[in-house]
Amino acid sequence: MLCDLEQKLTQDYKNAVNSALKVLGKDNLALIMHGVSFPADNGCDTGFGTYNSNAAKRLMDFANGIFTAIQLGPNGKTKSGDSSPYTGTVFSVNPLFLDLKELTTKQYDNLLSEKTFEKIVEANPASGTTRAAYSYALGAYETAFDEIWQNYKKNFFSKYKMPFAKFKKENALWLDNDALYEAFSIENGSDFWPSWSSELDKNVFKLNNAESKKRIKEVAKKHADVIEKYKFIQFLLALQAEKTKEYATKNNLKMIADRQVAFSDRDIWAYQALFLDGYSLGCPPDYFSEDGQAWGFPVVDPEKLFDKNGNLLEAGKLLKRLYLKMLKENPGGIRIDHTVGLIDPWVYESGKLPKAEEGAGRLYSSPAHPVLGKYAIARDEDTDKTLTPDKEAWVKSLTDEQVAKYGLMIEKIVIAAAREAGLGVEAIVAEDLGTLTYPVEAVMKKYALQGMKLVQFVVPEKESHPYRCKNITPNSWAMVGTHDNEPIRMWAEKTIAAGEAEPFVENLMQDLYNNGAFDNPCEFREKMLGDPQFLAFTKLVEIFASKARNIQLFFTDFFGINEVYNKPGTSGDENWSLRLQSDFEKLYSEKLATGDALNLPLALSFAIRARGHEFAEANQDILTTLGKFI
Question: What is the mean pLDDT of residues 23-47?
């Protein structure tokens, strides 16, 4: 019989959970929660979530003592026509993360009126649902920003004057460019610069001549008010984020940032001169896509990253400033999306398919390529001529000196920024799912980067597959899924329905249950083959039973929400919109009662027994304590 939620979340409960995590060798248990997915208090749902809200603080209270970290998504300003955080700005913060409710208080001098706030809440088309209303929020928030800015100008509150000036000065490197984009977007009637009719406006930073400088001054003067408003909203976001960080720290929670591999339209426009002409970043053909994935993301020009001695050039300095900003704002560390894109990126000619036969290749691993060859670190003799360049094992050997060259961005930018922020390499989470070439493996090993092991993606027929429980290494983050995966319960339902569960079940029986620590393990086998709830639970047990020192749980898997957050390759307001409901405490309690939410004490007790009879016997006191909360 499950205890009610209040009893489950006592200090004794948290002590039991932490003792179990400790004996299982876990350093971190992180909850994956992107900004939009944070809940809102009743009567405060403006159509978009934020980690700065009061409800987010309630979630931190709830997580305190259970989780050690919250893994955020990218927090950049997204496009008007695309809500994906993975194509947002790399410096500017998404204005939709501004907590409007807080701005109606005396603390913020009532910069926003209660009347306007209530109108936004009342008109929210997603009110009463667990979804964001992205298109609505874009317009509604802009109305709020206009009022906030007008109130600031009208009253010119002295307490903001000096801090705002300091913020603008300290962040001028990126803030001036990002704000100027607002002005140029108005001039051209679109926030998508490739559609602008003026070639001068498209290339105003790339040209960097007398005409372009004159144009910048002209537009900046004409739209000075728009530019200052943009900067003021970014300033308010920084104020709120600092308080959020302090609150999280008080609750013993670390906030982990997420650095996407892409750059936004705004970034590309401002830093065109730093990107490689004619090439884009993508993925080669594979099982899922016979033509590869043409992402269209720009590629940083290698010749503008480092000089021949490995010193940072303009692009390298810009990226280091970016990582340093993110790490200072999120002292829990940073997740690097698509780590291969930093170490051994696959690039293709713009306008063509990302296939080797159409001129695509790995930027630093194509010694014989007519264009990319000059950037090659691998030599011709380092490649396997029996394979095509798109295969993971294309590069077969490297010297220590070559590995160091492949790792320059990791060492001189990412790790260097972490150390400057007072952190170590353990603060870096390297997303290495999917393609893992030899240069990537070598660099990750050299710098002891922590990769990811996603058990939902295990190939059960492969005994040595790295995502199988017994093969998961300690220096990694284990998880059942990320923001790109279906909830583990949904995976289990589909796997059983398709008659494909048996090989997964056999792996789980061998790695978890056939060790003498469980009575009647055969019952578990039959249950996993026919009960999606138990199969999903066992996959969660698997990550805790593994040797991984770090665990991440997507919020849907923890709270038992059987809905998808992101469907890769699709767009529209339904995508990237799933949110946690306001009364998430009640949701968790109800889902625990039905067995849908993760019963952490039960999962941990299974994980301890999965380590074997002797291990379970040695930790019988912890198992007994956990049993009180099951």
Answer: 98
Could you tell me the two tokens for 561?
């929400």
Query: So what's the pLDDT on residue 573?
Result: 76
Cβ neighbors of 370 (< 8 A, separation 6 or more) are none
Place of tokens 């284990």: 478
The strand order across the sheet containing 550-554 reads: 428-430, 333-336, 254-259, 69-71, 28-32, 550-554, 476-479, 451-454
**Residues 281, 295: contact at Cβ < 8 Å?**
yes
Whether the predicted pLDDT of 2 surpasses 50: no
Is 257 in contact with 427 (CB distance < 8 Å)? Answer: no
Domains of the chain (ranges, CATH numbers)? 25-258 (3.20.20.80)
3-state secondary structure of 259: strand
Question: Where does the pLDDT of residue 9 fall: very low under 50, low under 70, confident under 90, or very high at 90 and above?
Answer: confident
Residues 538-549 have a mean pLDDT of: 98
158 pLDDT band, cuts 50/70/90, is confident
H or E segment and range at residue 117: helix 114-123
- Neighbouring CB atoms inside 10 A of 471's CB total 16
How many CB atoms sit inside 10 A of residue 54's CB?
14
Structure pTM? 0.96
Q: In this predicted model, what pLDDT tens digit does every residue of 347-378 receive, in sequence order?
A: 999 999 999 999 999 999 999 999 999 999 99
d(CA 33, CA 225): 35
Query: Residue 371 is encoded by which pair of tokens?
Result: 């264009």
- Residue 223 tokens read as 């739209």
> Among residues 265, 326, 418, 317, which one has the least CA distance to residue 93?
326
Are 598 and 557 in contact by the 8 Å Cβ rule? The answer is yes
Q: What is the pLDDT of residue 6?
A: 59
Angle, nearest 10°, between helix axes 532-545 and 488-497?
130
According to DSSP, the β-strands at 428-430 and 361-362 are unpaired
Nearest to 235 by CA among 316, 159, 143: 159
Contacts of 194 by beta carbon, 8 Å cutoff, 6+ apart: 202, 265
Q: Which 8-state DSSP code applies to residue 525?
A: H
Buried b (16+ CB within 10 A) or exposed e, 432-459: bbebbbbbbbbbbeebebbbbbbbbbbe
- Mean pLDDT, range 374-385, rounded to an integer: 97
- Rounded to the nearest 10 degrees, what angle do helices 54-63 and 224-250 cross at? 20
Tell me, what amino acid is at 267? Answer: D
pLDDT, mean of residues 608-615? 97
